[in-house]
């Protein structure tokens, strides 16, 4: 296909070209394509830049006519020079429809990619919305860094491109992209941020808000890479088999220590959902007064051998452990025993 040389399509192509320069060697890719403007423009940009593209259209089956939408998205991708496939998935499981659909979509893309990189059509506007939602929820720097341009196997070449450009690029190509009704449903917080909050901020602050939020995400990602490396090194020094040495942890800066604790807790099967939980575990390290165990959540559907029990973080003889308890306090995990109440005895 001969691609028109329009400003919007050129911005998409330059974004893809710049992304390839940062992540060299990825010439054969899978693109997750919904048929919307962003993913359709991404397919066009990749094909125009000479990449071998396989567009995978995931049909969630959540709306009437979803099969027709998926077929049209695949046809558009093929017209742009990609090969295309439609994958139908079942959306089920905990966390609501959005979370279940995201899990099903990611699993389908990973299976279809068969080890190849998977590109997604997130734009600068999506990045700004993610940062703003994180700020409103009191998220830390790890969440405010938002989406990465490359986090294997996921790539996002269009994080510097505005949504208006992807829409214009589709118009330049003579393609009418699919408009997902969910993207106009004000029941979703992200939709209200997109349609109400960001436009108001742009008006009050006289423009540039989306760009500023995206710059904030990039700067936080640079900072987070340094802190994450320090936390990994700390975790290696503090490990004592399945436990952590609290003395080694206590000497570390708080930002590094809490990152190390969070990584260790997740590795041990805990789902740390609140800042209060992480701080309570941190208190077992630096504010030890003989307090009892800290209850931890578990990812849905994990560790069925606990029979409805729970995970707890405990301190015992200067070491931090994750233990499994039944609801009556009986230890269920043979790898870790619960700590006694009261101060440590050495």
Automatic annotation (TrEMBL):
Gene3D superfamilies linked: 1.20.59.20, HUPs
Gene Ontology biological process: tRNA modification
Domain tRNA(Ile)-lysidine synthase substrate-binding: 244-298
Keywords recorded for this protein, A-Z: ATP-binding, Cytoplasm, Ligase, Nucleotide-binding, tRNA processing
Enzyme class, UniProt record, top EC level: ligase
InterPro entries: Rossmann-like_a/b/a_fold (IPR014729), TilS/TtcA_N (IPR011063), tRNA_Ile_lys_synt (IPR012094), tRNA_Ile_lys_synt_N (IPR012795), tRNA_Ile_lys_synt_subst-bd (IPR015262)
Region (Disordered): 321-346
The UniProt record lists the keyword Ligase: yes
Binding site for ATP: 34-39
Molecular-function annotations in GO: ATP binding; tRNA(Ile)-lysidine synthase activity
Domain notes: The N-terminal region contains the highly conserved SGGXDS motif, predicted to be a P-loop motif involved in ATP binding.
Protein name, per record: tRNA(Ile)-lysidine synthase
Organism annotation: Rhodococcoides kroppenstedtii
């Amino acid at each position: 296909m001969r691609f028109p040389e329009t400003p919007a399509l050129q911005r998409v192509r330059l974004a893809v070209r710049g992304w390839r320069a940062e992540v060299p060697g990825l010439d054969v890719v899978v693109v997750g394509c919904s048929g919307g403007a962003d993913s359709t423009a991404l397919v066009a940009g990749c094909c125009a830049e000479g990449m071998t593209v396989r567009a995978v259209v995931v049909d969630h089956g959540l709306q009437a006519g979803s099969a027709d939408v998926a077929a049209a998205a695949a046809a558009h991708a093929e017209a742009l020079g990609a090969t295309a496939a439609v994958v139908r998935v079942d959306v089920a499981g905990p966390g609501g429809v959005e979370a279940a659909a995201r899990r099903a979509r990611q699993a389908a893309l990973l299976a279809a990619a068969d080890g190849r990189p998977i590109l997604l059509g997130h734009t600068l506007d999506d990045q700004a919305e993610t940062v703003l939602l994180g700020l409103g929820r009191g998220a830390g720097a790890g969440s405010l860094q938002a989406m990465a341009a490359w986090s294997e196997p996921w790539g996002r070449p269009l994080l510097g491109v505005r949504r208006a450009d992807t829409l214009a690029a589709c118009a330049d190509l003579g393609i009418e992209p699919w408009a997902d009704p969910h993207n106009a449903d004000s029941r979703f917080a992200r939709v209200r941020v997109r349609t109400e909050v960001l436009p108001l901020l742009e008006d009050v602050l006289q423009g540039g808000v989306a760009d500023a939020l995206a710059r904030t995400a990039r700067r936080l990602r640079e900072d987070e890479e340094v802190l994450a490396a320090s936390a990994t090194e700390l975790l290696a020094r503090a490990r004592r088999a399945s436990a952590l040495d609290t003395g080694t942890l206590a000497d570390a800066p708080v930002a590094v220590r809490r990152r190390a604790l969070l990584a260790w807790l997740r590795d041990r099967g805990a789902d740390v959902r609140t800042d209060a939980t992480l701080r309570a575990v941190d208190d077992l390290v630096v504010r030890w007064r003989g307090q009892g165990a800290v209850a931890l959540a578990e990812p849905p559907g994990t560790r069925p051998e606990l029979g409805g029990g729970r995970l707890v973080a405990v301190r015992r003889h200067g070491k931090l452990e994750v233990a499994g308890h039944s609801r009556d306090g009986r230890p269920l995990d043979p790898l870790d025993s619960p700590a006694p109440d009261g101060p440590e005895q050495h």
